[in-house]
Amino acid sequence: MTAVGRAPLVWALDIATVTGFALGKVGETPRARSIRFAPLGADSNALFCGCFEWFGDLLEKGPLPDILAIEELLPPTARKGMTSTSAQHRLAGLHGVIRAMARHAAIPEIVGVNVGDVRAHFIQARGMRRDEAKRAVIATCGMLGWEAADNNCADALALWSYISGLINPVSALQTTPLFSSWEEVARVREAKP
Questions:
Q1: How far is CA 18 from CA 22, 136, 193, in A?
Q2: Does the residue 4 lie in any domain?
Q3: Which residues pair with 36 in a beta bridge?
Q4: Is residue 3, in this structure, part of any structural domain at all?
Q5: How large is the average pLDDT for residues 32-45?
Q6: Helix (H), strand (E) at residue 101
Q7: Which pTM does this prediction carry?
Q8: Using an 8 Å Cβ cutoff, are 91 and 74 in contact?
Q9: CA geometry: angle at 116 spanning 113 and 119, to 5°?
Q10: How many structural domains comprise the chain?
Q11: Peptide bond just before 39 cis, omega within 30 deg
């Protein structure tokens, strides 16, 4: 990983029609938000254009990250029967837009990360069912005191945490109950049904 001698700035993207975006320097508290690139029902071209405009504005405003982490696409067979070919094409197109623009902006490091690796790090459960995993990721964000308005933000924060843990392994410990705040652990346990 890059940025030796200083805390690198990491941008983490969970790319979809509503994209989760987290950013922050390693060792600091990240911020996150979600972005809808086009209105519901818009065609793929409008979606790609919205993505292009949003990411272009972000790159222009800066500062550029040292590392851009992107949650990798799932293989086409991963959600067989639960998604369509056109949805897969839209996701691949969004990934292409982001990756091309990041490369053009000379972001030093662009990395794809497997969602299973992120979940193993963040919620200690690689193979958990999708809906259950999303709830667990949101709960872990809450335990850490990180604001996540929705599951898109939470997934981006989990990705940011994974990359941060690779750069600074001590930061990876905070996602485990043993090293998090006891008050937050108790609150999360009480909130479970």
A1: 13, 20, 29
A2: no
A3: 18
A4: no
A5: 96
A6: helix 85-104
A7: 0.85
A8: no
A9: 100
A10: 1
A11: no
CA distance 21 to 5: 25
- pLDDT for position 118: 96
* Tokens, residue 173: 């410990």
Neighbouring residues of 65: CB distance < 8 A, sequence distance ≥ 6: 8, 9, 10, 11, 23, 107
Identity of the amino acid at 30:
P
Question: If 0-12 CB within 10 Å is exposed, 13-18 middle and 19+ buried, where does residue 117 land?
Answer: middle
The answer to whether residue 110 scores a pLDDT higher than 80 is yes
The CATH number of the domain holding residue 108 is 3.30.420.10
Greater pLDDT, 171 or 189: 171
DSSP annotation of 39 reads: -
Query: Of residues 82 and 168, which shows the higher confidence score?
Result: 168
pLDDT at 83: 67
Length of the chain: 193
Which residue in this structure is represented by tokens 């909130």?
Answer: 191
Q: pLDDT (tens digit, 9 = 90+) per residue, 167-182?
A: 988 776 665 554 554 4
Q: How far apart are CA 17 and CA 20, in angstroms?
A: 10
